[in-house]
Amino acid sequence: MEIISSFHRDLNDMREYYESGKTKQASWRESQLKALRCFLMEKQQHIMEALMQDLGKHQLEAFRDEIGTLIKTLNLALKSLKAWMSGKKAELPQVALFTSAEIVSEPLGLVLIISSWNFPFGLSLEPLIGAIAAGNVAILKPSELSPASSSLLFSSLTSYLDNKAIKVIQGGPQETQQLLEQRWDKIFFTGSARVGRIVMSAAVKNLTPVTLELGGKCPAVVDSLSSSWDIETTVKRIIVGKFGTCAGQACIAIDYVLVENKYCSKLVELMKVWIKKMFGENPQRSKTITRIVNKHHFSRLNNLLADKMVKESVVYGGSVDEENLFIEPTILVDPPLDAAIMSEEIFGPLLPIITVEKIEDSIRFIRSRPKPLALYVFTKNKTLERRMISETSSGSLTFNDAILQYAADSLPFGGVGESGFGMYHGKFSFDTFSHQKAIVRRSFLTDFWFRYPPWTLNKLQLLEECYNYDYLGMLLVMLGLKRSSKGLFANHM
Ligand code: NAD
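Above: the input record for the complex with nicotinamide-adenine-dinucleotide. Below: its predicted structure, written as tokens.
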């Protein structure tokens, strides 16, 4: 009860602050983006420590996937803010004499950002950058499953930012549900489809627009490559795209690999070699692989391996250390397709390889399952490339690499179908938290008589020519030299 009444008070104050127009000012947006950049730079060590505490995430990964990408995004937002905020001229047909039009982005108002634990800074602050750049007031609700990161965001970030406009609220499902009961102008959610449904149901009450950044199973198709350089590069990129990205606990991490039967053993052998080269004989000791976030997820992953036939399909790794929440990089070949490991999102360091007769069969395989957030295809075959683009659907499609698309500000990041909807990153984040308002400026100098009643057949004919942008036709109708086929309506005129 206490939480709810304090929510109400805070939200009312934030709405009033928004109404004052302060957050719409370019100078305010710029100052907040700069303050956010200061937080990332000055608290870099604290952020790394929090990520180490929550996930055992290596400092390099922390910089690569969170601090570095966020600073890069902030630099872009600061450089582009004026251009993003300025109205864009819209073309009108010549028939709209003495009329001009533009599209102006206006903030939505009070927005709620709910994020996940695997990239607790990246997934919280990347959308927040968009919300601030677009001039909104925002509440951020990070995940309770990365408590050190959430607590740092709560205690430290807020001392850098304007607290009348930006607040961090800590809590789990109960607090999130209380937040969801409030009225928002936008909800931006990153997490599972299960909670995504809860978010959408809550949004229905006030018809609140929602962005859902969800997950799913992201396949990597590996075509047979002839050059040994290409093969090795493919293997290295797959390994880092799986085990070297939060230990596979990433929405765009490779979930499973599809490969031709005859090429499988070569791929597995090379993977074994490169896992050892990257993480050493004892990967746990290397301290370069993130640990599993908590006991619940550890048991969930362990259970995926418990199935007898799944266990028999392990060809590499498989050892687990429950006390330290560590799971060794594990490769499986052809686990049963109806086992949980192939029907649920894995979200951990287990990599099934599924063999197909011909690589083209992978298209049917992918199409028969929910549309993935990311699809990766390693190939030099242009025909396969074309077919993948036109015959599959996914949030993104990357050829010959993995994860890379996340760092590209010029690309929209988001899902399709069950992997979510809406998009962000770079200018897309600004647009996600803006309403694109159509502005029309009309002069009093000209006016068409045929837009006013009483309706006549002649006016209908003129309107028809007008919508076809046929100026000659309009002239001919006016001169009585052209009749349209609208005789049909004559009885009503
Ligand atoms: P989650 O859905 O359990 O939690 C996400 C957020 O929802 C958290 O802030 C949590 O506190 C809140 N929450 C949890 N249960 C709730 C409930 N019952 N009612 C209201 N709120 C609730 O997801 P997660 O475990 O944090 O993340 C894993 C999932 O998120 C995976 O499916 C993954 O693919 C997806 N994900 C997607 C992206 C993306 O960018 N598309 C990024 C990271 C994770």
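Notes for the reader.
The chain is about 45% helix and 15% strand.
The first helix runs from residue 2 to 19.
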